[in-house]
Amino acid sequence: QDNSFEQFIINYCNEKLQQIFIELTLKEEQEEYIREGIEWTHIEYFNNAIICDLIENNQTGILAMLDEECLRPGTVTDDTFLEKLNQVCATHQHFESRMSKCSRFLNDTSLPHSCFRIQHYAGKVMYQVEGFVDKNNDLLYRDLSQAMWKANHSLIKALFPEGNPAKINLKRPPTAGSQFKASVATLMKNLQTKNPNYIRCIKPNDKKAAHIFNEALVCHQIRYLGLLENVRVRRAGYAFRQAYEPCLERYKMLCKQTWPHWRGPARAGVEVLFNELGIPDEEFSFGRSKIFIRNPRTLFKLEDLRKQRLEDLATLIEKIYRGWKCRTRFLLMKKCQVVIASWYRRYA
């Protein structure tokens, strides 16, 4: 119920993770259909980039305002920080405060004067402004790190490398918010170079008990995790997509015209293959570089046919090998019999 600076930066990280989830699933999914020239009805979804910008914008973001308050001379308090937020973020649609002179919240008794509220992707969260400045400005001062570095204990000395006089940096140490923001940026950059798989965990109840299913709690989690939008995009789109070359290479054995070698463009080979298998036209679409299959059942059917065909080919290879082996043995025995017979007739 009481949220301070720690919960604020945790929720900021959650917003960034939700943003990359949107980028890599909902947005990328629909943009791929456009790139491939597939007929597609666009599905609307909420993009939380506006919330991330409210927090991390270098000029008008909450973290930037907090750093500016920590670094400026004069009297700095949590109230002056909130006052600055009320000036800069007053008109933002996801920022709420009773001190922002905005008529929408002047009479909102659920929002104390010393708090501000952010409408996150997962819902509204109220933050107690008390302690924001001190927690963000929680710095290890240079003289303390130098004293620790001079300790005789090797472990303590290794924990404070910034105290080494040879590496003195006259710059002010970064604030806690700046360090966290840089860490989140590094994490996002790392995730964007990967092919992530998402596992969404749903908490059925707050009691951590078995066989209790809180419908309201589950529905709330489904909404703020973006599962509804993701399911709508998946159901309206195609369950499977693959480039023509690997698709033809995997299933060409199912058609006499494409097996064992197809002479021509891969797309033409896939068209011949699907026509030969009698797959309904509404179950697949041809993109510029990929084949799109709508229903998972169609893919399962292809895999079952391929499995059966592999068994048939394995049986054929085994039959030919056994025939070759028996014939080779027969010819060797025949040759030996001729040699033995010729020598026997010579001395008979």
UniProtKB/TrEMBL annotation:
Q: Name one GO biological process term.
A: actin filament organization
Listed under GO cellular component are:
brush border; cytoplasm; microvillus; myosin complex; plasma membrane
The segment(s) forming the Myosin motor domain are: 1-307
Q: Which residues form a coiled coil?
A: none
Ribosomal protein recorded as keyword: no
Q: Which UniProt keywords apply?
A: Actin-binding, ATP-binding, Calmodulin-binding, Motor protein, Myosin, Nucleotide-binding, Repeat
UniProt region (Actin-binding), positions on chain: 184-206
Q: Name one GO molecular function term.
A: ATP binding
Q: Can you tell which superkingdom this protein's organism belongs to?
A: Eukaryota
Instruction: Please report which protein family the annotation says this sequence is part of.
Output: Belongs to the TRAFAC class myosin-kinesin ATPase superfamily. Myosin family.
Q: What is this protein called?
A: MYO1B protein
Q: Tell me the organism.
A: Cnemophilus loriae (Loria's bird-of-paradise)
